[in-house]
Design the sequence.
């Protein structure tokens, strides 16, 4: 029997050979060998405990900052969705926001602002979910996850529920020292005291700035590369001549040089090849090795000889 034939019973959904392109913002990529939509945290933990230890497990959030490669993803792909992972609550006393891993970062910002909790407005500028923010210490406009997080919890590859304080996560720029394989399910954030109207205006200003400077209505994955120390990825890409330049159906945005776009016909290979071409050119011209911020997951499509 194959591992798929020995999958445990779950209360959520197990979908075989499920296409993933529609679940990502770039709209590219192959299928998941098995896509698992757990009913809740307990369902997720039970499945992971019963899953053979050598079965690969990949987490896919809202798909905003990821390229799923054309060959698809082997093993179990976990996607958290629904009420069990998508609720946000506010505790006005200690000025805290408790959110599930599938909650959009922008929803955290809005809930905090409505309750007069300051310090979380920057989340309005991040196109992702709480789970992704916890994984990569997401941030923008002067704020980052590690500065507002109190604690996060989730399930590890063995199905054990674990809780971490922010200090235990060892956050640095777009990096966390959390154990590999953690699947975040929720977190609590700390803010300060603020005026709801002023906070709402700050969020509106961030939203307007994003719309004016980023191609948010295109098929894009957000920032393609991390900013190198003391510089900006967009400046280096622009200086190297890649703003608005195409490769197949992929291009770097004329509006923001660090945003890669699927113009409508791109394959995952086109996007990744374009990114690697830019990395090589920037390093050759400026001696800077850009690091991917967009995750690339799965297998590349086999090319014919």
Sequence:
């Amino acid at each position: 029997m194959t591992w798929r034939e020995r999958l445990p019973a779950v209360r959520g959904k197990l979908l075989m050979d499920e296409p993933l392109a529609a679940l990502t913002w770039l709209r590219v990529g192959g299928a998941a060998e098995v896509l698992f939509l757990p009913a809740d945290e307990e369902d997720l933990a039970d499945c992971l405990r019963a899953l053979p230890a050598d079965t690969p497990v990949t987490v896919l959030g809202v798909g905003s900052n990821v390229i799923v490669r054309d060959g698809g993803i082997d093993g179990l792909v976990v996607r958290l969705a629904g009420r069990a992972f998508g609720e946000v609550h506010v505790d006005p006393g200690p000025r805290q926001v408790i959110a599930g891993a599938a909650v959009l970062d922008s929803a955290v910002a809005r809930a905090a602002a409505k309750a007069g909790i300051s310090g979380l407005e920057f989340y309005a500028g991040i196109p992702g979910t709480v789970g992704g923010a916890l994984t990569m210490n997401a941030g923008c406009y002067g704020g980052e996850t590690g500065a507002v997080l109190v604690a996060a919890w989730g399930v590890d590859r063995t199905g054990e529920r674990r809780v971490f304080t922010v200090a235990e996560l060892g956050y640095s720029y777009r990096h966390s020292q959390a154990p590999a394989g953690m699947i975040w399910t929720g977190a609590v954030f700390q803010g300060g005291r603020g005026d709801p109207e002023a906070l709402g205006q700050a969020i509106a200003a961030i939203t307007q700035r994003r719309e004016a400077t980023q191609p948010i209505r295109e098929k894009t994955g957000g920032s393609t590369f991390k900013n190198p120390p003391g510089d900006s990825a967009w400046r280096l890409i622009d200086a190297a001549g890649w703003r608005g330049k195409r490769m197949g159906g992929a291009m770097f945005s004329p509006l923001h040089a660090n945003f890669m776009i699927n113009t409508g016909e791109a394959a995952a290979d086109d996007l990744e090849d374009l990114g690697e071409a830019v990395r090589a050119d920037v390093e050759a011209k400026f001696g800077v090795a850009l690091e991917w911020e967009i995750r690339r997951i799965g297998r590349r499509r086999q090319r014919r000889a």
In short: The longest strand covers residues 183-190.
